[in-house]
Amino acid sequence: MDPETLERLDCLIDEAGLEETDLIGAMQDIQRELNYLPEEAMRLVAQKIGVPLSQVYSIATFYKTFSLEPRGRHLINVCMGTACHVRGGVQILEKLKRILGIDTGGTTNDQRFSLEAVRCLGCCGLAPVIMIDGKFHGKLTQKGLDRILEQYE
Amino acid sequence: MKTCRTHLLLCAGTGCVSNGAFEVMRSLEEEIKRHNLTEEVSIVATGCNGFCERGPTMVVQPDGIFYQRLTVDKVPHLVEEHFLKGRPVKELMYTEAKGRPPVPRMNDIEFFRHQVLIALRNRGRIDPEKIDEYIANDGYAGLARILKEMSPEEVISQIKKSGLRGRGGAGFPTGMKWEFARRSAADLKYIVCNADEGDPGAFMDRSILEADPHSVLEGMLIGAYAIGASRGFIYIREEYPLAVERIKRAIRAAEEYGLLGERIFGAAFDFSLRVVRGAGAFVCGEETALMASIEGKMGRPRPRPPFPAESGLWGCPTNINNVETWSNVPVIILRGADWYSSIGTPSSKGTKVFSVVGKVENTGLVEVPMGITLRKIIFDIGGGIPGGKRFKAVQTGGPSGGCIPENKLDLEVDYEQLAEAGAIMGSGGLIVMDEDTCMVDLARYFLAFLEDESCGKCVPCREGLQRMHEILDDITEGRGTMDHLVLLERLANTVKKASLCALGSTAPNPVLTTLRYFRDEYESHINEGRCPAGVCKALIRFSIDPEACTGCTACRKVCPTDCIAGERKQPHKIDPDRCIKCGACHEVCKFNAVRKT
After folding, report:
1. Which of B38, B273, B363, B454 could be stapled to B232 by a disulfide with Cβ–Cβ 3.0 to 4.6 Å?
2. Nearest to B481 by CA among B534, B525, B446
3. Which residue of chain B is at minimal alpha-carbon distance from A140?
4. A9 touches chain B (CB under 8 A)
5. Domains of chain A, start order
6. Which of B454, B400, B421, B438 is nearest to B536 (CA)?
7. CA distance B2 to chain A (A)
8. Which CATH architecture has domain B439-528?
9. What is the mean pLDDT of residues B441-446?
10. What pTM does this model have?
11. H-helix or E-strand containing B178?
12. Whether A66 contacts chain B with CB within 8 A
């Protein structure tokens, strides 16, 4: 990792706080910054907060937010909540897998998209719904998906 | 503060925003400016108003007119007609069905008429980002009252008397919980707000945090005073970015106003509050797992006792309540325990917020008195099942809950009645299902969810759920036997009894209730190799009814495997060998010619 990035991460961790209770928050901020958690970043956070690397690793693998692999430029979260399930969320996920040629948790070769299935996004009125980079697309049909993906370069 | 003759309360909840609420808002601002009405008409972006199905929605005050399904192109006409000329626009009002007369006023609409708002009292009424608007609506008056007039013991006795029970799921009496934490002697105690709303299909906590964050802060402050806590945490899902932002903003505003910090209202009471973001683990809704997560560890539950009231965060006495519980507290203090306990049933007092979702006409968030029937919620408020389909079941309580069949629709909703039916109140998700939902598939869905979310610490949950999931896979894929049902039931009861935390001990509920009420569906899968609802892929076949097919070619165009053949205006045919059963043809067919058998 280049020194500039390391310095930026250093600042992020300082801002998040240096107590054990700030650990997960700091890791979330790094994940947001880099799209994933490289080993170096995990070492840095462990050292700064003063916890064993194994604890950082256990958190990184326990919680769903974190990824140890680089993710694509755009993150597609497909809602797998119950309302979406009964309104055809499974078909939406299957279709996305087919369009992108990747499985859940995967990233396209061109690093354009990563695909994740998430538990409820909490906007069941829009079911079935997906969230791309924090923006919601609701009341989806299989047919409409191509047009939505086109919006993301 | 500027006084305007008209206030436009535009819903800026997540549902309405993704339907274009902010675009509508910008357009409203432009049009209002164009007609020189800026001094007379003000726009307020409120939190979720609840009627997500009809978003973006807007209420015009003081006359209470409700507009729905607003779009940018309709705004110029609306502004000119209603706000310039004073003629409300009928086309944008709510109608129950096509051809029925519009219902102009919000309070006359069936969806809103039966609701009693306590936890959601300020929804759609105030700007959630302005603390002054909360204060103007009796905000922080409850806190002022207890600090001036009441001892902590008196506060606890009021909450106990009110009959308030935990709204997060288990329904433990809140006042009693506080009393345990009060009695634990320690220099440092903690208060926690559980906003890790995990149940799929439930979004009331998100809505409260987005629409009225200060009501949660005030509730926590009252709780902190009652148990003697000086520090607090709000543990909130990262998937709710707007709620995180609003609550953080609310904390800053409260700090500036001296409502958080030292010597609050000049009393000998200090309290500070921090936000911790959850990182996507369902099990963190369990209180001991949640505390581990706040401490910066993996969110795994631990055995109780000791209960958090004795030994919680960092070994200090800790009291955890959920968002909706906290937001009820200030109103109870202000209006009194007697008033609160006059609402509801003998065992469950007050109101409950439900998210009515799934196969229902009016998807949204409703707050109703305890004791209301499921039928009233689903059919009167929810508007029934869309598309002339038949109601099959309603699922309450998320993955830990159960499925309730049609013959129990007149059940009066409270903690005990739901438990008796094999379900739970849970956080209040009501997922409505029609004839197209397969109950075996649904049970499998919940198990898959919980197997994935199981933390793996205790064997019954980790192994039991996996085995149950495998059995359900067998049944839905046509390999099931009747012995499987016996095994499934036995496993379910073992997991229920032996699991460490509520995730495991409630996980079998969806299986047990579907076995209890929809056994015939399991038997159809096993004995006839048939999925009556047409959901389980391995057991269904897509075909085209040549009588109904008009040869429009829509299905042929969407088929990802090119397995549909047919000339224009001639009946089409599906090649079953190449069909992957994705259902795309079924989705696009306007003539109901694609059949699932």
Report:
1. B273
2. B525
3. B587
4. no
5. 3-62 (no CATH), 74-149 (3.40.30.10)
6. B438
7. 34
8. Up-down Bundle (1.20)
9. 94
10. 0.93
11. helix B174-183
12. yes
- Inter-chain touch A136–B17, beta carbons under 8 Å: yes
pLDDT tens by residue, A17-40:
999 999 999 999 999 999 899 999
- B131-341: what fold? Rossmann fold (3.40.50)
**pLDDT per residue as tens digits for the range B65-103:** 999 999 999 999 999 999 999 999 999 999 988 888 999
Mutate which of A123, A135, A151 to disrupt the B interface (most B C-beta within 10 Å)? A123
ipTM for this model: 0.92
Which residue among A81, A94, A142 places its CB closest to the CB of B201? A81
Q: Is there a contact between B417 and B411 (Cβ–Cβ < 8 Å)?
A: yes
HSE, CB side, 13 Å, CA atoms: give it for residue B308. 21
- Number of helical H runs and strand E runs in chain B: 24, 17
**Strand arrangement of the beta sheet that strand B364-369 belongs to:** B364-369, B351-358, B429-434, B391-396, B402-405
The reply to whether B439-528 shares the fold of B351-427 is no
Q: Sorting pLDDT into bands at 50, 70 and 90, what band is A124?
A: confident
CB contact under 8 A, A136 and B18: yes
Which tokens go with B400?
Answer: 């830990």
How close B281 comes to chain A (CA, Å)? 6
* CATH code of the domain made up of B351-427: 3.10.20.600
DSSP 8-state secondary structure symbol assigned to residue B275: E
pLDDT of amino acid B1: 53
What local confidence, expressed as pLDDT, does residue B2 receive?
66
Residues of A in contact with B197 (CB under 8 A): 122
Architecture of domain B541-596: 2-Layer Sandwich (3.30)
Domain ranges of chain B: 6-106, 131-341, 351-427, 439-528, 541-596
B584: chain A residues, CB-CB within 8 Å: 91, 95, 142-143
- pLDDT confidence of residue B76: 96
CATH among 3.10.129.10, 3.40.30.10, 1.20.140.10, 3.50.50.60 for B6-106: 3.40.30.10
Instruction: Name the residue of chain A whose CA is nearest to B17's CA.
Output: A136
DSSP B31-42: HHHHTT-TTTEE
Predicted local confidence at residue B113, as pLDDT: 93
